[in-house]
From TrEMBL:
It is found in: Secreted. The active site is at 240. This is endo-polygalacturonase. One of its GO terms (molecular function) is polygalacturonase activity. Residues 1-18 form the signal peptide. The keyword Metal-binding does not apply. GO terms for cellular component: extracellular region. Its EC number is 3.2.1.15. InterPro entries: Glyco_hydro_28, Glycosyl_hydrlase_28, PbH1, Pectin_lyas_fold, Pectin_lyase_fold/virulence. It catalyses: (1,4-alpha-D-galacturonosyl)n+m + H2O = (1,4-alpha-D-galacturonosyl)n + (1,4-alpha-D-galacturonosyl)m. Keywords: Cell wall biogenesis/degradation, Disulfide bond, Glycosidase, Hydrolase, Repeat, Secreted, Signal. It comes from Penicillium argentinense.
Length: 379
């Protein structure tokens, strides 16, 4: 018993918090497994918690971060965790102020579980950075959470409040589930939050974002590339809608098989949105939006456009990123009277194999600018 406690404390390498020892009843009888179990459970806390966790992460198989105050300009770097590690956020995680690009938190590894304990909050206190300019200028703002190279892993029950700018960056992930994640950037509505995308997905295969709750000031979801991406049971409010793209002009420009299902989008600029980049190449195939409800949409209920350049529409679509097999099923709701119900701007021959059924968006204007609309769709 004494030996294993020492092992455990050594493993912490100076963490300020005591490590916790699993109850004796859980410990298996062999010395080796007992040592492994006991060395594995580490708790870090306070202003030195981040540095200690970064130093000791590879010797812990459970990492509890309790009321950690991450210093300014430091990433809570939980990359390269050993296989099977569980990371638990407890209490309030805070971050010092610095103008930099972040990220504030980064996690990578295989068979990783990241979860928020009941009542836990990752508080970005974004108003310190917000200036209404997001990533387009003003202060340099740190991105919040990199979930890069997470393989066969889960992120559960995390509650993120007031991100300075984009929240979850999901990149090079394989079989990653994010369940019951909350992004609450509601304060940004009146205090200058901008480009606070909740989930940006790129170059990933097998991403399952289930039951997220989002209030932000940009895309609820933006898929720039990847395959087999699922986004279900979402409530999205305040932002720019559930988006594919802009696709094109990056190193990876293929979007293949995205299922967006059972989502509600309220008080947002757009509902359903697919954008591709003017003059670029790539492809968008097999995107499905099913059982989607819209209300309080201020720009477009449904918008598909192939004319984006430097983040703005040109009005001139090109065919280098074809959009094939776009299925909309039971997409319904209302937009503001000044908004447009449906807008489709395709280049000749660049949108095909679409299946729209049960699509009903009302309350706004009918667009007169649609081009090359596939037969099952309607503006
Ligand atoms: C749809 O999503 C809501 C959350 O917005 C969830 O409570 C509900 O169980 C989901 N329904 C189905 C059929 O998946």
């Amino acid at each position: 018993m004494v030996a294993s406690i020492k092992f455990c404390l050594l493993g912490l390498l100076g963490a300020v918090a005591a490590s916790t020892i699993p109850g004796a009843s859980e410990i298996k009888p062999t010395v080796a497994s007992a040592l492994e179990r006991r060395s594995a459970s580490c708790t870090f806390t306070g202003s030195k918690g981040a540095a200690s966790a970064i130093k000791s992460k590879k010797s812990c198989s459970t990492i509890t971060l309790k009321d950690v105050a991450v210093p300014a300009g430091t990433t809570l770097d939980l990359t390269g965790l050993k296989d099977g590690t569980t990371v638990i956020f407890e209490g309030e995680t805070t971050f010092g102020y610095k103008e930099w690009t972040g990220p504030l938190v980064s996690v990578s590894g295989t068979d990783i579980t990241v979860k928020g304990a009941s009542g836990a909050i990752l508080n970005g206190d974004g108003s310190r950075w917000w200036d209404g300019k997001g990533t387009n200028g003003g202060k340099k703002k740190p991105k919040f959470f990199y979930a890069h190279k997470m393989i066969n892993s889960k992120i559960q029950n995390l509650y993120v409040k007031n991100s300075p700018v984009q929240v979850f960056s999901i990149n090079n992930a394989k079989e990653l589930t994010l369940d019951h994640v909350t992004v609450n950037n509601a304060d940004g509505d009146s205090k200058g939050g901008h480009n606070t995308d909740a989930f940006d997905v790129g170059s990933s295969t097998g991403v399952y974002i289930t039951n997220p709750s989002v209030h932000n000031q940009d895309d609820c979801l933006a898929v720039n590339s990847g395959k087999n991406i699922h986004f279900t049971g979402a409530t999205c409010t305040g932002g720019h809608g559930i988006s594919i793209g802009s696709v094109g002009g990056r190193s990876d420009n293929t979007v293949d098989t995205v299922n967006i299902e059972n989502c509600s989008i309220t008080n947002s600029q757009n509902g359903v949105r697919v954008k591709t980049v003017y003059g670029a190449t790539g492809s968008v195939k097999g995107v499905t939006y099913k059982d989607i409800t819209l209300s309080g949409i201020s720009k477009y209920g449904i918008v598909v456009q192939q004319d984006y350049k430097n983040g703005s529409p040109t009005g001139n679509p090109t065919n280098g990123v074809p959009i094939t097999g776009l299925t909309l099923s039971n997409v319904k709701g209302t937009v503001d009277s000044s908004a447009t119900n449906v807008y489709v701007l395709c280049a000749s021959g660049a949108c095909s194999g679409w299946k729209w059924s049960g699509v009903s968006v009302k309350g706004g204007k009918t667009s007169s600018k649609c081009k090359n609309v596939p037969s099952s769709a309607k503006c």
